[in-house]
Specification:
Elements lengths: L6 E4 L15 H13 L4 E5 L5 H13 L4 E7 L2 H10 L6 E8 L2 H8 L3 H16 L5 E6 L6 H14 L3 E6 L6 H14 L7 E6 L6 H10 L4 E4 L13 H10 L15 H12 L20 H9 L27 H10 L7 H17 L5 H9 L10 E9 L7 E8 L2 E8 L3 H13 L4 E9 L8 E9 L2 E9 L2 H18 L12
Parallel strand pairs: 1-2, 1-8, 2-3, 3-4, 4-5, 5-6, 6-7, 7-8
Antiparallel strand pairs: 9-10, 10-11, 12-13, 13-14
Length: 515
């Protein structure tokens, strides 16, 4: 591989899903995988096949659906993991197995309880086994950022000899500092005799806010693959943000001697898709994809940008997918215009029934809101009831009463397994009353972990987008709802979360420590 190519390895579907509450269904993973493929991501890490039957089926589905990107499955350096990953990836046009084992003293002693010689032996054996399924094998020494340099050199040389074509150096706990991490990559490449036979990669966590900085330092010192996620999603404080890595390298070509082949115009649409599916909103000041990323409040800045964009903008908004003009639909817009615009926004319907149901909701929204923007359409589809098959609970009607000096009250009708049930409850506010009324019917025994409201567009007629996070017996799910009435949006979000809870499978991620 030529040195001017920087491989983008996206792990939103695997590491990103390990964010509490970010669990995705198979269909949701497929939608994100197709968006990543449109963006021309080189490698899509689809999941951890051994973790659960659901994860196995998701990786299998992504492997069969994706044609233009390599699909990767994660596996510990264990025979059963690697065989399971190989089985899940069977049929992929381009497949990769990513296997790992811990190499830091603390991990080897306290977690693995293995001697260094045993760790090397197990790593080599696993790479050779993975090569039986695919020629494209990646190896990661877990917690490399706290591992001893001499041991890293030894184990990496051995796994390259065994057939690993990509060597990924993870800063598993986000402990490293850019100059230190860059120097580690440089020394590994220089000291390992067969380093020229593999692509060196990095996977950085953001515990100190340095994931992107560490990744870029590694690239400057010879790394030619970066593992990252959309919106920086990931376990604990998250991972290196794909959009920031890609645009930093592309914007500063005076410093970086490499570039990606990514279609950057797909960054913002993909960011919104991931945010909508996971329920993790993007903060307004987030680089590249935040609502304020290209906004200018200061009069001096506004004057400068009007005279010459380059005075205060180092990249063009439209280059990363921000629309310079937005198509506005309204109540007179037809079914074909609605379908066409959603296709342009990379949403596809699996059946005419799904399209008709979504169009009906669009018409309802257009009656309440004069102008329907792209953001409204994305929220509308994300809130689609057809996103979950065989819903047990559906909202039929809701009436709330809230006035000064009186206890708020909610009366609702739920459809439960096809049968309508009426419930009434008081609460500390109208949303609390509605949630209590639902619980008086479903008795879910869940704990509300998060209740978040965001406006989708500006104006008093804007839709409110609500995220509800529920937890039960260690299983965490997010529910989303959107409506111009915030109480109705909240109720939809709560019911959406309950339905997801019923269809979710608790996933044990058996690596006990992320790569």
């Amino acid at each position: 591989m030529s040195n001017d190519k920087l491989v983008i390895f996206d792990t939103t579907l695997r590491d990103g899903e390990q964010s509490p509450g970010a669990s995705m269904t198979r269909d949701e993973k497929l939608r994100i995988a197709k968006a990543l493929e449109r963006m021309r991501v080189d490698v899509i890490e689809a999941g951890f096949p051994i973790a659960s039957q659901g994860d196995f089926e998701s990786v299998q589905a992504v492997a069969q659906a994706i044609q233009d990107s390599t699909v990767c499955g994660l596996a510990r350096a264990l025979d059963k993991d690697i065989k399971r990953a190989g089985e899940a990836l069977r049929g992929a046009k381009s497949a990769r197995i990513h296997t790992f084992i811990a190499t830091s003293p603390i991990h080897m002693q306290k977690k693995l309880r293995m001697q260094p010689d045993q760790v090397v032996e197990q790593a080599v054996k696993s790479v050779k086994l993975a090569r039986g399924f695919t020629d494209n094998v990646e190896f990661s020494p877990e917690d490399a950022g706290r591992s001893e340099l001499d041991f890293l050199c030894r184990i990496i040389e051995a796994v390259i000899d065994a057939g690993a074509s990509t060597i990924n150096i993870p800063d598993t706990v986000g402990y490293n500092i850019p100059h230190q991490f860059g120097e580690l990559i440089r020394q590994l490449i220089e000291r390992i005799p067969n380093s020229d036979k593999a692509v060196f990669s990095v996977h950085c966590h953001n515990d100190l806010g340095l994931a992107v900085g560490n990744s870029l330092a590694a690239v400057l010192n010879g790394a030619r693959q970066v593992e990252c996620t959309i919106n920086g999603l990931g376990e604990r404080a998250g991972n290196a943000s794909l959009e920031e890595v890609v645009m930093a390298v592309r914007t500063r070509q005076d410093i970086f001697s490499c570039d990606t082949t990514l279609d950057a115009t797909q960054i913002v649409p993909c960011s919104r898709l991931v945010s909508g599916i996971t329920g993790f909103p993007v903060q307004p000041n987030k680089a590249i994809v935040g609502a304020n990323a290209f906004a200018h409040e200061s009069g001096i800045h506004q004057d400068g940008v009007l005279k010459s964009r380059e005075t205060y903008e180092i990249m063009r908004a439209q280059d990363v997918g921000w629309a310079t003009n937005r198509i506005v639909l309204g109540k007179h817009s037809g079914r074909n215009a609605f379908k066409t615009r959603l296709q342009e926004l990379n949403f596809e319907f699996n059946s005419e029934h799904e399209l008709n149901a979504a169009f009906s909701r669009f018409k309802d929204l257009a009656d309440k809101k004069h102008e329907v923007y792209d953001e409204d359409l994305q929220a509308l589809v994300a809130d689609s009831n057809w996103a979950i098959e065989n819903e047990r609970f559906q909202l039929v009607s809701l009436h709330v009463c809230s006035e000064t000096g009186e206890t708020p009250n909610a009366t609702l009708v739920l459809c439960v397994d096809g049968k309508e049930v009426k419930a009434t409850s008081d609460g500390s506010g109208p949303v609390d009353a509605a949630f209590r009324a639902i619980e008086s019917v479903v008795h879910s025994d869940t704990r509300l972990q998060l209740y978040s409201v965001n406006n989708i567009t500006s104006g008093t007629d804007a839709q409110g987008e609500v995220t509800v996070r529920l937890e039960k017996s260690g299983l965490i799910v997010n529910g989303q709802g959107a409506d111009t009435d915030i109480v109705i949006a909240s109720t939809h979000a709560y019911i959406n979360a309950l339905n997801k809870l019923l269809h979710s499978e608790a996933r044990e991620h058996p690596q006990h420590g992320d790569v």
